[in-house]
Amino acid sequence: MKFQVTERISTTTSHVEIMNALEEQMEKVSTNLNRNGDKITTESIALAMLHFIFRKDTSTIKADQVDDGFLLVADVHYCPPFLFYIYIAIVLLPFVVSIMSPSFSLINITYFIFVIISIAIYRNQKKTLSDAIENVFKKNK
Questions:
Q1: Is the pLDDT assigned to residue 45 strictly greater than 60?
Q2: What's the Cα-to-Cα distance from 55 to each of 4, 46, 48, 123, rounded to whole Å?
Q3: Is 95 helix (H, G, I), strand (E, B) or coil?
Q4: pTM for this model (two decimals)
């Protein structure tokens, strides 16, 4: 899933100072950060519960100069790692097999609930990720 987080800041500080401040703040919430000229690339922002199963994210952050300051833009790409698909298959396979059998039971419903909870946690990660980036942007205002 791809999305963008933006924040407009009115300031007279230089582009270098803005990028330095962004880099400093992103180091606090990211496990891997690389700065290449006018762009900051980060991975694994805002580590959340069960992060390693439910999310892998990469963000590219830049500050574009506008009339009265800067427009901070984060292009975010996040997706589940391969382990997430294995987890879903392990949980979902017994559910699918048991539906085909004549003895449908409470265990089958439990498998289905685990799948739904896993997907809900994964979907919730977008908000966690977006909030973390927005907080970094607000600290740089």
A1: yes
A2: 17, 11, 9, 9
A3: helix
A4: 0.75
